[in-house]
Sequence to fold (269 residues):
Amino acid sequence: MSVASDPVTLLPAVVEIARRAAAAILEVYESEFAVEQKDDRSPLTAADRAAHVLIVAGLRALTPQWPVLSEESDSISYAQRRAWQRYWLVDPLDGTREFVKRNGEFTVNIALIDGGKPLLGVVQVPVRGEVYAAAEGAGACHIAADGSQRCLQVSRYDGGPLRVVASRSHASPELVAVLAALPGHLIVPIGSSLKICLVAAGEADFYPRHGPTSEWDTAAAQCVLEQAGGELTDFALQPLRYNKVSLLNVPFVAFGAGQRPWQAALQAR
Fold:
């Protein structure tokens, strides 16, 4: 692997690309923006488009040899994608519903995928100016708005109330059933890929997701979580894989270290 293609070497440049996209998002966030609907009825704003353009241009300039798949790209068929070994997977604005609500819980997600696995992940939080970043072999870190850094490490659950991350915009009856099977829990509600990042940072123990998500929603945060010592898997505890025929994820769970009192409840469903 050349230096120019090493995920660890690429990470600072990708963080800077994410920050530029965040600045463009905030320009729209602070204005009176319009909200459109995609074919799947999910919201779309000028911020999604502006971030997409900046990120794709930045990644193509950084690594012109690798393709880019973004949520806001034109449709790319699996017949074309199946030959991709290494590529960028991007959600220019993850949590557009949270963006529209103006609660600050939205992110920029950029991941480098190789052989179906995320090797690099950057999750930028525009309103807070903070970044969660990771690359295989370098661990995971949190970069605060003032530039200070700390290494991320998942917590070890050994009993007591389980800290469960739940979506603000995508509650489900399946989640209610899983929670009912736990001996005790605390709910940590938050939007976007921040849910996975909270597990990576040791601020939550468990995040189950039954509802639909797409590959660009999870890849960057999965890398952060795995490099922090956690896992993001399907309900059979197999890691999520990328560049499948369908870009939709199966139901998944993100978790840290230690005991897994939720495992039987999930696998029974």
